[in-house]
Amino acid sequence: MGELPFSVQTALHPDHLWIWRKSVYVDENQRTWLPISIKTEDGLRVLLRQEDVPLGEAMRPSQMPPSPLPLMWQLYPGRRYRGSDSSFWRIVFHIEVLQFLPP
């Protein structure tokens, strides 16, 4: 298997994640998180990677396209998040993109 075009490390779990715009969440420390949704036989899995991206203008929830992901996640005991829609999501890990490596 080839080398990934970026380096990663496990990131700390943010206490809260709020939707900022489509596919961009912001935590309590103004770090940006990008979700990657993966459909499996068991349901939906989401990989959240912390990557610094320009924020731009925030979108109102009414401006957001339909999404299976909640507008906000709050960290709960037991390595899980509770979504603004009352759904629970188990945390496996978060990753932080440190740098993109040249091809």
Description:
It is a single chain. This protein is mainly β. 0% of the residues lie in helices and 50% in strands. It contains no helices and 9 strands. The chain has strands at residues 6-11, 16-21, 24-27, 32-40, 43-50, 72-76, 80-83, 88-90, 94-100. It has a 9-stranded mixed sheet, with no helix packed on it. β2 (16-21) and β3 (24-27) form a beta hairpin. The radius of gyration is 14 Å and the shape is globular. It starts with 5 loop residues before the first strand and ends with a strand.
Q: Kindly, what is the distance between the CA atoms of the first and last residues, rounded to a whole number of angstroms?
A: 15 Å
Number of DSSP helical runs: 0
The poorly predicted ranges are: 98-103
Q: How many beta-strand runs?
A: 9
Instruction: Tell me what portion of residues adopts beta-strand conformation.
Output: over 45%
Characterize the biggest β-sheet.
Answer: 9 strands, mixed
Give the strand order of the largest sheet, numbering strands 1, 2, ... along the chain. 1-9-5-4-3-2-6-7-8
- Structural class, judged by helices and strands? mainly beta
What does the overall shape look like? globular
* SSE succession: EEEEEEEEE
